[in-house]
Amino acid sequence: MPDVPEGNLPEPAPEKIPVTPAAAAPAAAAAPTTPAATAPAAAPKPATVPWESALVVQLRSVYGAAIQTAATYAGQNYLVVDRSVCHEVLGTLYEQAGYTFLTDLTAVHYPKDALPFEIVWILYSMADEQRVRVKARFAGGEEVRSVTARWAGANWMEREVYDMFGIRFAGHPDLRRILLPEDWTGHPLRKDYGLRQQDADWVQKNLGIESGQ
Amino acid sequence: MSDNQFYESLDETKPGHTFLDSNELVLNMGPQHPSTHGVLRVILKLDGEKVNGIECVIGYLHRGIEKIAENRTWAGFGPFVDRLDYTAAVSNSLGYCLAVEKLLGVEVPKRAQYLRVILTELARLASHQVWLGTHVLDIGAVTPLFYAFRDRETILSVFEKYCGARLTTHAFRIGGCRWDAYPGFAEEVLKLCDDLPPMIDEYRNLITGNRIWLQRTKNVGYISPEDCMSYSITGPVLRGSGIGWDLRKAQPYSSYEDFEFDIPTGTAGDTFDRYVVRVEEMRQSIRIIRQAVDGLPEGPIIARVPKVIKPPVGEVYVSTEAPKGELGYFLVSDGGPQPYRVRVRPPSFINLQALEKMAKGSLVADVVAIIGTLDIVLGEVDR
Does residue B171 form part of some domain? Predict the structure, then answer.
């Protein structure tokens, strides 16, 4: 039934997006006429609140100011730690707090920052059904310590981060590209990766024409 | 070393030390091998029939989904996620919508949540039917494939009536569902719930007691619970090893807490147990669908969401129990109309890593069984 009239949809919220994006969506969601008003409980508005728990107190007592942030955003706990201690923090979480499952390992590129690469480890504790994200910032060209010794599953995740961001992992058993061919140039998920330039280069080299666009 | 010394250094109890077995053969399987379910290339180091080493080469289907996301609007990326695990496109869509809704702080109306559960569980059934048919075919039984695909058609026709598409449905929108249930939807789905259990019994009669099937799956592709944890394995593979962890129970989303269902687990951690787990999951999905259709509330199907979606600055990780395992989306918003970063945590990609662990030391024919039991979809592995 692809031809359902548009009237089937509730009319969208007024097109008034405030300049500060932090207020945009929740304001729309909380409009008094919202159909969600009948729902049992409205979802908590995303807001950053300090994460206070015995675990955070313990981590702070061991690592002090290297635990830069311990917060909860949209009900999800995360830690921002200094890169000098991130490996040890992961070890503490694994050995003492039951976060024995590495859900995911990825990176985000912030090219304008002094430390442009953020590595994100997402850990899970099956005993407590809790998830925590550990984040640390690294400079370009800096090596990150591999966690493959603890989690065998980190092998491909780190290879993918290397492939997509060019971040090298020290102690990784087999750090090569994984999704892209070995002879690929550049790391696509970096923000400065030129998609059009890449395309034009390929077309010029392989088809002998100026541009494929 | 003289010949005599060499002879004495041989341990005749170990076949690897005799001259007959001293040469290893490197065999390239794929990327176009039919049992690799797409374009997976596996390089095997063989000693006769025995697999001494194994390496996966992936990326043949890489489309740069995560980079595409950075050049689309939040809503505009919606159709792309259907192309990850295309055997259960609805599940991908659910995960992405839930993640963006979390970022926005939007509460989805109850009716939409129930509709999502019904469609997602139907997709799980369809996905498991594809797995069953192809997995059994790989091992040598041709008939069950036709049974499984025959029954999958009935599910796909529900999708088709619901949204016009059978495979890459794009059924959900950020904030709820795009379409309400069509007239006769409840009756049709309930009839499906009545029809499917006898069909699943049919698969059982064909497969479960079959001697060849048992010999090809029992004690094949063993993985221990500890290795599952170390390899970050989720989904039926984890449950087949005896860890009864399912995100629908552990961290319920989209009203899964309203429904009664069991999490089937295996004990042996082998291919046969994973087969049992998935078939039982199909029965549990039917149970969930029945409850969701019976309790389908009235009301709106989509929450109020601004036309131009600009989530506040922040990041969330939201994951759902897809048919293959934990499908997670890590989203970073810089407050703009396009995602700053979308990371997909693909269950197939991460589960496939364990192939090396599971297949090393087994026979070359078992590699085919193990690829089947991991239930990978290359669209999701390569993204």
Answer: yes
Best of B43, B106, B321 to disrupt the A interface (most A CBs within 10 Å) is B106
pLDDT tens digits, A32-81: 444 443 443 444 467 788 888 888 888 888 888 888 888 888 888 898 99
CATH number, position B304 = 1.10.645.10
Torsion A165-A171-A173-A174 (CA) sign? positive
ipTM: 0.83
Nearest Cα neighbor of B378 from B86, B131, B138 is: B86
> Taking Cα atoms as reference points, which of B121, B105, B125, B102 lies closest to residue B171?
B121
Strands (E), chain B: 25-29, 41-47, 50-57, 172-173, 176-177, 314-322, 325-333, 341-345
Residue of B nearest to A46 (CA): B105
DSSP letters, B46-112, are EETTEEEEEEEE--TT---HHHHHTTS-TTTTHHHHTTTSGGGHHHHHHHHHHHHHHHHTPPPPHHH
In B, minimum Cα distance to A129 occurs at B250
Q: Which residues of A are less than 8 Å from B307 in CB distance?
A: 12-13, 15
pTM equals 0.82
> How many Cβ atoms from other residues are within 10 Å of residue B284's Cβ?
19
Q: What does the mean pLDDT of chain B come to?
A: 87
What does the pLDDT average to over A28-35?
Answer: 40
- Range(s) of the domain holding residue B148: 65-221+237-348
Nearest beta carbon to residue B107 from set A39, A108, A164: A39
Task: List the single residue in A20, A36, A157 with the smallest CB-CB distance to B107.
Answer: A36
Band (B64; pLDDT cuts 50, 70, 90): confident
Tell me if chain A has a CB within 8 Å of the CB of B252.
no
Reply yes or no on whether the pLDDT at A133 is more than 70: yes
Interface test with A, best of B230, B237, B241, B255 (most A CBs within 10 A): B230
Interface test with B, best of A112, A122, A155 (most B CBs within 10 A): A122
Give the pLDDT confidence score for residue B286 in this predicted structure: 93
Q: Which domains does chain A have, with CATH numbers?
A: 48-147 (3.30.460.80)
Residue B330 confidence (pLDDT) above 90? yes
Q: By mean pLDDT, which of A37-41, B97-101, B315-319, B330-334 is the weakest?
A: A37-41
Q: Which amino acid is at A18?
A: P
Chain B partners within 8 Å of A42 (Cβ): 107
The yes-or-no verdict on residue A1 having pLDDT over 50 is no
Structural domains counted in chain B: 1
Nearest CA in chain B to A5: B179
Distance from CA of A212 to the nearest CA of B (A): 18
Please tell me which residue of chain A has the smallest CA distance to B337. Answer: A21
pLDDT, residue B21, reads 52
Q: Mind listing the pLDDT tens digit for each residue in B187-222?
A: 999 999 999 999 888 888 888 888 888 888 888 889
Q: Measured between beta carbons, which residues in chain A are less than 8 angstroms from residue B340?
A: 108
